[in-house]
Structure formats: structure tokens, C-alpha cells
Amino acid sequence: MKTFRSYAIPGSLVAIPLLLALFGPLFASADTTKDVAFSLGGGHWFGTDFVGRDVWNEVLQGGRSLVLVAAVATVCTYLVAVPLGLIAGMTHNRALDEVLMRPLDLLLAVPSMLMLLLLVSIAPQAPWVLIAVVALINLPDVVRISRAAALSLSARPAVEAMRLQGESRIRIGLGYVARSMRRTLAADLGTRFTGATYLVASASFLGVGISPQASDWAAMVDRNRVGLFVQPWAVVVPALLIVMLAVGVNLTFDRLLRDRHPQPTFQETR
């Protein structure tokens, strides 16, 4: 019961925007009739937006692109970064390590927003382009974290014992080092997903990577901010859902790590 209560708040923060993003389009109306711009009431739960569209209907339709693009970009980042970090951390070939890491250092030198604007603006407006760009921006950080974890783990006596027993590097890497990296990667995953959400939302806010008329939570904030003091719900509702998702994901991962790897109490350390 105590465990359930500890997950109630972070679980709710994640579940509400996630359910709206995944299943909201199923309940959204196909009616494109427009009403008066920036109005409250009139049969609309949260009023109308800058062109008279129902805000709640836009919220139901606007989360899937943001959440799915951020989630897929995060998964793609780890699928590429973890093997690279594992190879760089376990190799005894300095030249190979330099070949793998130095190009990523160049990517780190470029500000993420500048790279996002540059790459997305010259590429076609398609979800896969935005996924590739966000994954590329996050790639250097995840590779460095994976490499640092692999370096530390590969220096343990257990790895040396496995080598003396004749175990192959692949078996050591996948069977021991990669499995032991799970806690480090899990701790980073929540932050990385939040960063991906921020990048996708920033792209949508700036109007790059998505269609100008597409329903999107971040784009709703940008389009309706001029009428914030006339019709605040068109800005507050999508912005609140983005914040809830980011905070909820981090709180959930923190709770999972704390439960799986509890810190010793003062009495236990004595």
C-alpha cells in the first residue's frame, strides 16, 4: 500500500498527458467548424483558440506528435549510443577510441538549439527528420555516459576473472558490463526523455519540423500566446500537460531507482 501511494503522484503526472496523447485523437471531433477567435464558453469547455477552433479538441489531437517523436527519438539515441559507448569503454585500442569519440566532441561544441534550427530548417518537414535530429543532438551525451560506465565496470576484478577464464569480449560486454550499466542508464533515461521533449516542443514552438496548421501542444502555446490574457486556457492547458509529462517521468524514474537500490540507513552504515 505504501509503495502504491509513493507512485500515485508521479504515476498520475505521467498517465494524464500520456493517455491524452495516445488516445485523445480517438475522441477528437472531426468537425472543423470555427467560432469566434479567443472566446470563452459558447459550448467550448476551454474556449476557442486564435482562429476559433475548440481548444479541448486541439488538445486531444496535439499530444501524439510531441510524445511519440520524443519517445522514439530517445529510444533511437540509446540504440545507437549504448553500443558505441560500450565499444569505446571496453576497447584497449586508443586509436579506435579516438575515432569513436572525437567526432562526437565536435557535436557537443555546437549548441543544441542552433543544431536543431539548422538541420530541421534545411530538411523536409517530416516526423522522421525531427526524430533523427533530436537523436543526433542527444547522441554525444549518452555515448559519453555509456563509455564512462563501461570504463569503470571493465576495470573490476570480475571482468579480469572472466578474461582469465577465456570468456570472449562480446560475452563479457553483453553478459556483464551491459547488464551492470542498467542502473546508470536508467537514471539518465528520465532526464534524456525530458530533454528530447524539450527539443521537440522547442521545434514545434518555433514552427520547424511540423506543418504550420498541425495540432501540437507546443505549437498551441506559440500560436495562442498573443491572447494569453484574453483566453488563457489555450496556452495554459497544453503547457501544463508538457510540464506534467516532463516532471512525472523524472519523478517516476527516481522512485524506481530508489526502490530497486535503496540507500543504506544510518544504523546500517555503522
Throw out a few tags for this protein.
270 residues; mainly alpha
Describe the overall structure:
- The protein is an all-alpha fold.
- The protein has a single domain, classed as Orthogonal Bundle (MetI-like fold).
- About 75% of the residues lie in helices and about 0% in strands.
- It contains eleven helices and no strands.
- Helix 9 (about 215-225) packs antiparallel against helix 10.
- The longest helix is centred in the first third of the chain and has 36 residues, at about 55-90.
- It is elongated, with a radius of gyration of 23 Å.
- The two termini are about 30 Å apart.
- Mean pLDDT is about 80; it is low at about 265-270.
Instruction: Note the gap between the termini.
Output: 30 Å
Backbone CA Rg: 23 Å
Beta content: under 5%
What is the CATH top level name? Mainly Alpha
List how many beta strands DSSP finds.
Answer: 0
At CATH level 2, the architecture is Orthogonal Bundle
> What name goes with the CATH superfamily?
MetI-like
Strand-pairing-aware structural class: mainly alpha
The residue ranges in which pLDDT falls below 50 over 5 or more consecutive positions are: 263-270
